From TrEMBL:
Similarity-based family: Belongs to the acetyltransferase family. RimJ subfamily.
The keyword Hydrolase appears for this protein: no
Keyword Transferase tagged: yes
One Pfam family per UniProt: Acetyltransf_3
InterPro entries in the cross-refs: Acyl_CoA_acyltransferase (IPR016181), GNAT_dom (IPR000182), N-acetyltransferase (IPR051531)
Official protein name in the record: GNAT family protein
Annotated ranges, domain N-acetyltransferase: 15-194
Keywords, ordered alphabetically: Acyltransferase, Transferase
Amino acid sequence: MAVVHWPVELHHGQVGLRPLKASDGAEWSAARQRNISWLRPWDATQPPGADDGARTFRAMARDWNRQARYGRMLPFVITYAGAAGAGSRAKRPLVGQLTVSGITYGSARWANLGYWIDEQYAGRGIVPTAVALAADHCWFTLGLHRIEVAIRPENKASLRVVEKLGFRYEGERPRFLHIDGEWRDHRIFALNVEEVGPGLVARLT
């Protein structure tokens, strides 16, 4: 059985990852509201007939942290020391979210990774650093073998992230995820631990 490392905080330079907490609700909701038009084209939606039911942010955060303690996912918020009002690490505001999901052990040992960033902080290298931190943690602490990222072909900003980090393009999956109200095609990018040497943070620096 895998050893679970949660909660955990990761930092490199001005960028940090910390667990999403139930108390983040107001700040998270304000960021999402502020970025509705920026994020809507890339947001996951429920397909017709889905019966998952609506739930509060607090319930979602508690569920995700419970899954994290079982080693199934890593629900992080992204923090940035250069954000307005940033102080000590403990008080840095969230500027986005990064989630490692679908963690699988056994003979597979892989996971997929997704993220979003507040538009006002886009283009500062925050997301590549956050992805590098999370991926290195998955490879070198959790012992995973493969990290996968699925990106819509139209999402040029996310495509630049995986290009910068050297993720390998593996092809397109038609109608792969339900995004912005429709089943959307996605491009699949991946890296195995043997391909990253000392890690992606080292690759950035």
